[in-house]
Amino acid sequence: MRFKKVVAGMLAVTSAAVMSVSVMAAGSITDAVDTNNVTAETTTQNTESETVGGLEVEVETVGATLSKDVANLYEEEIQKVVDALQAADADTTVKDAFLAIFGEEEMPVISFVKMDGTVTEEIDLSEYKFISPVMDLKLEKEPTEENPVDVTFTANNMTDNIQVDVLHYCEEHNWEVLEGEKVSENQVKASFHSASPIALIYRELPEEETEVATEEVAP
């Protein structure tokens, strides 16, 4: 899918910035995502159902493919950002990667979109690093805000002390971060209202969020 929406002024900014990002060690981003193991589905509610509460949930499987080959897939201004992010070092935070591209003055507002669709701009990108390179996600059914598609990714090095979310480019909202929901030891789900490009990113959780409660036996 090619993006046709042009972001004013982005081309000039990214052209100069890609050179500064290229000094980073290309290919150093952690690559733990299994592109052969991605699933997607939509969930709808039938309000005419006679089930308890008057709602019947219907789940539809959606075909999904995930590819690491993102060369020459997007419009030029988006492609330059994708290429620059691909060159980011494994120790580079998401904030620093974007600052290297846009600079302080042109830094885009990157919102955080929760699983329930609520949006907040209070997100600290300096806490995030990349757990995957930028990838191309294709879905057989086009997602929208009214009918999102839940996509489940497999990341083989997920641990209990990290939160995995999804960096995503949306034609309407520009770059944003989608909240990830851990569904198993090595899988995370996110709700998409548009598709590619994407990258899995992570932040370390505070110790109190990773402590596992133990069963206490009363004396």
Structure description:
- With 219 residues, the protein is α+β, with helices and mostly antiparallel strands.
- 34% of the residues are buried.
- The chain starts with 9 loop residues before the first helix and ends in a 9-residue tail after the last helix.
- The protein contains four helices and 13 strands.
- The chain is globular, with a radius of gyration of 19 Å.
- Strand 11 (181-184) and strand 12 (187-192) form a beta hairpin.
- Residues 1-28 and 211-219 have low confidence and may be disordered.
- Helix 1 (10-21) runs parallel beside helix 2 (76-86) and helix 1 packs across helix 3.
- It is 18% helix and 31% strand.
- The protein has helices spanning 10-21, 76-86, 94-106, 207-210; strands at 39-46, 56-62, 64-67, 111-113, 119-120, 128-130, 136-139, 149-154, 162-170, 174-178, 181-184, 187-192, 198-204.
- The longest helix is centred in the middle third of the chain and has 13 residues, at 94-106.
- Strands 5-4-10-9-13-6 form a six-stranded mixed sheet, with no helix packed on it. Strands 2-1-8-12-11 form a five-stranded antiparallel sheet, with no helix packed on it.
In short:
With 219 residues, this protein is α+β, with helices and mostly antiparallel strands. It is 18% helix and 31% strand. It has helices at 10-21, 76-86, 94-106, 207-210; strands at 39-46, 56-62, 64-67, 111-113, 119-120, 128-130, 136-139, 149-154, 162-170, 174-178, 181-184, 187-192, 198-204.
